[in-house]
Amino acid sequence: MKQAIFSILTVFLLIQCTPMKLSVSDDLKSDHDEYSVKGRQGILIKQKLSFGDYRTTHVKRSWTKGHSSRTGLGSYDQQQQWVNLISMEYVNKKQTVNFNLTDGRQTSEVYCVSKFQSEDLQIGRRENSIFNIAMDIAGFASHSSSLYYVQMFMGESGTPWQLVLDNQASQAAPKKYMGIIARSRSEYYTLVPVTKLEKNGKSGNTLLGSVGFEMRDPQGRTVAAVSMIDNGMVFLRKTSAEERFILANVCAALLLQEEIG
Length: 261
Hints:
Elements: H1 2-16, E1 21-22, H2 26-29, E2 32-36, E3 50-51, E4 54-60, H3 88-92, E5 96-102, E6 107-116, H4 130-138, E7 147-154, E8 161-166, H5 167-172, E9 179-182, E10 188-194, E11 196-199, E12 202-205, E13 212-216, E14 222-227, E15 233-237, H6 241-256
Antiparallel strand pairs: 1-11, 2-15, 3-4, 4-5, 5-6, 6-7, 7-8, 8-9, 9-10, 10-13, 11-12, 13-14, 14-15
């Protein structure tokens, strides 16, 4: 009982003090850059989102009218394996967004869909589908209707990084849940909800589920984090420019999720 009261008081004091920050893992705190997000508060589709050197060049509510040969509806990758298909039903419900991200040197094309159903990720039923990878690595639930699904094409690569996040599970059981970001069984990150805020070096748990996410590599090291509080913040570990760009795309897709639908 005393512990519960202490936790509530801690959160109350944190809320009263501003500004608050996402409390990230120690391995990320020791070597990272952090960026305030611009363009998210009150964002409308087609407005620009930016943090640090990263910015969207367009945000469009479509998976089917892109300026490139990619449609986001599904295609064969470089190994001639089927990449997950998104039905027109989701597009017609305006539950999709397509955007490009750049850091001035690298570019990406990203497709997002909200309120996705897990059954739709099993199309093709190939061993290396994102659904099967998520099941093996993160213990992903076999049935869900609250998924956020993202395909991220980096440069000219025909094989996308894919993200799967169960919004309901990440809020209901944030300390147990893991989402997945993967391009193959050996190339992946886990997506872990963050439930702590900090002020002046002191942290406390929230009472309302997760307030952001950390991304961890296969060795369990935290390499990035994104805060959903207010305008948002992005934390990137000082790794290679290529890896940071992948992680920046993940952060941008998570920050834009609330603007879909």
